[in-house]
Specification:
Length: 326
């Protein structure tokens, strides 16, 4: 199919079909953004406190109160999250609680002002297509794992540190437990970002323009900016990732596939490449490999979306009657 036909299908995406004049009202947006940010900050505090309390209750029940209290030392010694599985999961829990609560609060404010149910920023028709989320997890995860293995076999990983999943737990059961909780928490964190960027932002941007190029560019740039990474290479890769996830959302008519793809990216990185770290990124010069990586990610996400909506062997497993096909 010609790219022009795909772009025309994206202009008519079912994800943008329910837009109303409220979504284009600049005055409502001018109120929704600052009020939403304030609500998100307050919700983030509550989310962090709730996550801390939940983890403390679970850990104290398993290992006693001293072990639960010791978890808070990670805030003074954040490097512990890079070497201790329990400390890493604790920080992941807090981050998931913060992201999830903040995203829901922000979107809730805009939903109220735009007379739209919160779920309207995630799906069309009120049905969350779980199989598309699984598709993103499985397909992106499998591709990234294959690339990691290929890089290691070609010697690109020579001298690289031990994969976090092996370093943060010493037994098979411990590693399986760590991986299970990490996957669950990273899906929550990814869903929070997706409902804001590929949900709220894409809906309101789509109310002003239906141009797929503009929508992908705006979404990708803002997605990269919000991560506050000083490295131009990382900025470019995140911008390409945001653009690719926007393509996925427009082509499938919801954010489910984007959630899975986003989560899979983070899961593979944290389990196989580098552990969770709160240390600010050091500034690195721009490298050509970053440009190659950005092109690969953007094109890869677009091709994956096309596979899900068009290839019978893929749609048979992961598609649904509500997935766009053209």
């Amino acid at each position: 199919m010609a790219i022009a036909a795909i772009f025309e299908a994206m202009r008519e995406s079912r994800f943008l079909a329910d837009l109303t004049p409220y979504d284009r009202d600049a005055r409502r947006l001018a109120v929704a953004v600052p009020v939403g940010v304030l609500a998100a900050v307050a919700a983030a505090v509550l989310g962090a406190a709730s996550a801390c309390l939940l983890v403390m209750v679970v850990v104290s029940g398993l290992d006693g109160a001293p072990a639960a209290a010791a978890l808070f030392a990670v805030f003074d010694q954040p490097a512990r999250a890079e070497t201790e599985g329990l400390a890493s999961l604790f920080l992941l829990s807090v981050l998931a609680g913060v992201n999830g609560a903040a995203a829901l609060a922000f979107v809730a404010v805009s939903a109220g002002l735009s007379h739209r149910p919160i779920r309207g920023y995630a799906v069309v028709g009120g049905v969350f297509r779980t199989r598309l989320l699984v598709a993103g997890l499985v397909l992106v995860g499998a591709i990234m794992v294959a690339l990691v293995i290929a890089a290691a076999s070609l010697g690109a990983g020579a001298g690289a540190p031990t994969p976090p999943i092996l370093a943060l737990a010493s037994t098979s059961l411990g590693r399986a437990t760590y991986a299970g909780f990490a996957i669950m928490l990273l899906v929550i964190a990814a869903a929070a970002e997706e409902i804001v960027f590929r949900g709220w932002l894409l809906k309101h941007a789509g109310a002003f323009t239906r141009s797929p190029v503009i929508l992908m560019a705006v979404n990708g740039l803002l997605f990269a900016l919000i991560h506050f990474d000083p490295n131009p290479g990382a900025f470019l890769i995140r911008a390409a990732m945001g653009a690719g996830l926007t393509w996925m959302t427009l082509r499938t008519g919801g954010i489910e596939l984007a959630i899975g793809a986003h989560a899979a990216n983070n899961i593979v990185i944290l389990l196989l490449l580098r552990p969770l770290s709160l240390t600010p990124e050091a500034l690195h010069p721009f490298q050509l490999t970053s440009l190659v990586g950005a092109v690969g990610i953007g094109a890869g996400y677009a091709l994956l979306a096309e596979a899900v909506v068009r290839w019978p062997i893929v749609t048979r497993w992961f598609g649904s009657r509500d997935t766009a096909t053209i």
